[in-house]
Write a structure and sequence with these properties.
Layout: H1 2-21, H2 28-49, E1 58-64, H3 69-86, E2 90-96, H4 101-114, E3 118-122, H5 124-133, E4 139-144, H6 147-150, E5 164-168, H7 173-183, E6 189-195, H8 199-213, E7 218-224, H9 230-240, E8 243-246, H10 250-253, H11 256-266, E9 270-272, H12 275-281, E10 284-287, H13 290-305, E11 322-325, H14 327-333, E12 342-343
Parallel strand pairs: 1-2, 1-3, 3-4, 4-5, 6-7, 6-8, 8-9, 9-10, 11-12
Antiparallel strand pairs: 10-11
C-alpha cells in the first residue's frame, strides 16, 4: 500500500512539472509575431519608393562651378524648364563648387554614388569633373564655350557622343573682334584679359587675337591665375591698351567690380564676351541669354529622361547672340553707343 501511495505522489509531481514546463509555450506567439513584422514594415517603405501613378520619378544633380550672374541664370533656366516638363516627377539637387574644380569632383562623385539619373554640369570644370566621374550617367553641359577644347577632342564635329552633350555659350568670335574696331576704329593696342586656368578663355583669346592681328592691331595677353591678382593684372592691361577684350571667363565674371575699379578711372573701355561681364565692367558685348541657354539644356534633359532622345546622338546646341551696350559705363567714359545695340537692363 505504501508503495502504491508513493507511486501516486510521484505521478502527481511529474504532472505538475509538465504543467510548469509548458508555460513558456504561451510566449511563443508573441515571439512569432515580432518576426513577421519585418515584411510588414518593409511594405510601406517600398510603397513610398514606388513611382507616381503618372510615370517614373527622376533625380538630377546640378554642379555649378561658381556663383555669378551668367551661371546662375543658366542654372535657373535649366531648373525652370525641367520642372515645367516633368513637374513633381523630378527632384533637382543644385550644388555650387565655390569656384574650386576640386569641389566639382567631390560634388559629381557624390551624384554618381547616389545613382542620379542625369548630371547637369554648369561651366567647363564641372563638365570635365563629371566626364571623369562616370561614363554611364547622362551628362549635359551648359555655359561651355568649346566642347572640343574642354574635353580635348581632336575630331569634334558638333556631337560629343557617349554619355555627353549640352549647350554652348559661344558667340561669334570674328564678330566680337570686329566689334572692337566698330566701336573704336582708331584702336592700335588691345589687351586680352583672361584667366590662364580656363581653357575655354584661352581658345577665345587665340581666335580674337588672330582676327585683330589680321587687321593690323597689336594684341598682348594679360592673364591672371585667380581672383587674387585680378586687380594688378588689369592695371597692367589698362596701362598698355586702347581697348581691353574680356572673353566668357568665370574668374573675370566673379570679379567685375575689381576690373571696373581699374579700367574706368583709367578711361579704358572693355568689350566683353557676355552680358553679365559687360554689366559689371564693359562697354559692349555680343551676348547670349544664359537663362535661355539653361532652358534649352533643361528641355534636352527632359527628352533624355523620358527616353525620347539618345544623348550619344544629340549635337551640342547653341542660342542666338544679341549686341548690347552698358549705358552707365558709356556715360562714364563719354562714349556714344552705336546704332543696332540694345541697352542692358539694370
Amino acid at each position: 500500500m505504501k508503495k502504491i501511495l508513493a507511486m501516486l505522489l510521484a505521478l502527481v509531481m511529474i504532472l505538475s512539472l509538465a504543467a510548469c514546463a509548458s508555460t513558456p509555450a504561451a510566449d511563443t506567439p508573441a515571439e512569432s509575431s515580432s518576426t513577421t513584422e519585418t515584411p510588414v514594415t518593409e511594405t510601406p517603405a517600398s510603397a513610398e519608393e514606388t513611382p507616381a501613378a503618372d510615370g517614373k520619378t527622376y533625380t538630377v544633380g546640378v554642379c555649378q562651378l561658381v556663383q555669378h550672374e551668367a551661371l546662375d541664370a543658366a542654372t535657373q533656366g535649366f531648373v525652370d524648364a525641367l520642372t515645367e516638363e516633368l513637374g513633381d516627377a523630378v527632384t533637382i539637387d543644385v550644388q555650387n563648387a565655390s569656384g574650386d574644380s576640386v569641389n566639382c569632383g567631390t560634388i559629381v562623385n557624390g551624384f554618381v554614388s547616389r545613382g542620379v539619373d542625369l548630371i547637369m554640369a554648369n561651366a567647363t570644370p564641372a563638365l570635365t569633373a563629371a566626364v571623369s566621374a562616370t561614363a554611364d550617367i547622362p551628362i549635359l553641359g551648359t555655359s561651355i564655350t568649346a566642347y572640343g577644347v574642354a574635353l580635348d577632342l581632336d575630331d569634334f564635329n558638333g556631337t560629343v557622343g557617349g554619355n555627353v552633350s549640352g549647350t554652348s555659350d559661344l558667340a561669334d568670335l570674328q564678330k566680337q573682334a570686329q566689334m572692337i574696331l566698330d566701336w573704336f576704329p582708331e584702336t592700335k593696342n588691345v589687351g586680352l584679359l583672361f584667366c590662364s586656368a580656363e581653357p575655354n578663355s584661352r581658345y577665345q583669346i587665340d581666335e580674337v587675337r588672330k582676327a585683330l592681328e589680321a587687321q593690323g592691331v597689336t594684341c598682348e595677353e594679360f592673364a591672371f591665375t585667380d581672383s587674387n591678382d585680378v586687380s594688378s593684372v588689369t592695371q597692367k592691361a589698362a596701362d598698355f591698351s586702347d581697348v581691353v577684350y574680356i572673353p566668357t571667363d568665370n574668374t573675370a565674371a566673379s570679379n567685375t567690380e575689381a576690373i571696373a575699379n581699374v579700367l574706368i578711372p583709367a578711361g579704358v573701355p572693355a568689350i566683353c564676351g557676355e552680358e553679365g561681364l559687360c554689366r559689371g565692367c564693359g562697354v559692349a558685348t555680343l551676348s547670349i541669354s544664359y537663362y535661355d541657354l539653361g532652358v534649352t539644356t533643361g528641355k534636352m534633359a527632359a527628352k533624355i529622361l523620358k527616353g525620347e532622345a539618345d544623348i550619344s546622338e544629340m549635337p551640342v546646341e547653341y542660342t542666338d547672340a544679341t549686341p548690347k551696350y552698358n549705358a552707365s559705363i558709356c556715360d562714364q567714359l563719354g562714349i556714344t553707343p552705336l546704332d543696332g545695340y540694345e541697352a542692358i537692363d539694370g
